[in-house]
Amino acid sequence: MSRLALRDFDAVLAVARRTSFRQAAIDLGMSTTALSHMIARIEAELGVRLFNRTTRSVALTDAGRIFVDRLGPSLQDVREAIEIVRERRATPTGTLRINAPPFAARSPVFTELLLEYARRYPDMHVDLVTEGQLRDIVAEGFDLGVRVASLVPSDMIALSLGESQRFAVVASPAYMAERPRPLVPTDLLGHVCIRVRLPDGSLYRWHFAKGGDTAQVEVSGSTTFDELAVSRAAVLAGFGIGFFFEQDVIADIKDGRLVRLLEDWTPPFPGLSLYYPGRRHPSAGLAAFLALARERASATSSSS
Questions:
Q1: Angle (CA) 176 181 187, round 5°
Q2: Which of 15, 19, 101, 127 lies in the 20 to 30 Å Cα band around 246?
Q3: pTM attached to this predicted model
Q4: How far apart are CA 297 and CA 116, in angstroms?
């Protein structure tokens, strides 16, 4: 047992969390083969199999489940002890793991925050994972997450990034030249629209609000995409009307490549928030990131 190290424990937890050697290897920054050999060595050291493996799946054995259930909290205590000691350094070191949806990663406010953090703390390694599905950041080993404010779990501490979000309904000038302009959301039912598929496989219903009225429209069209770049290209090519976050098409609108529609039905709504668990001793790296986020949000609000 004495030959096992923290990195070995991280490997076990990563495979258990991801139920995939390939995905766990990506998280750990190593090859799948190296991770497989590491787990085999750990199992040999313990004298018990931790995972049942097939060509299609990875699952914990009963012994593996007991090991992981006991290991997780204990390893967290060890990490907190390490971070408490590291806080005595003048400069934070270590890794900061962040989970965010793709559109958040495209936000200028969030991007500038990440780059400024990297400049100020060159000894910190920032590991940003972007995906559409909501994740349990604690169970999956992230230090913090980024979500639209309304989607932050109630048991987490939230910190606004100080930027509102807004949707934009757009079409190309060529498409609109031959069709009537929609005046209310239900007018979209008479148009060809680029449908959006969500990460869970369902089709997104376009959301609208004006005053006290709200509407959700299940649009129709000959194309359905789950990738922003493809949807934007289709709208620019005149295939139909698209529904985007404003930040992703604002340049096209300003340059006249796209025409904005139903603007009065797409008001701003609470934007992105950082969120994180309320631990007694946040890591020095996380504390520095949150302090920088508060600093930038305060500067933004005072200048507006």
A1: 120
A2: 127
A3: 0.60
A4: 13
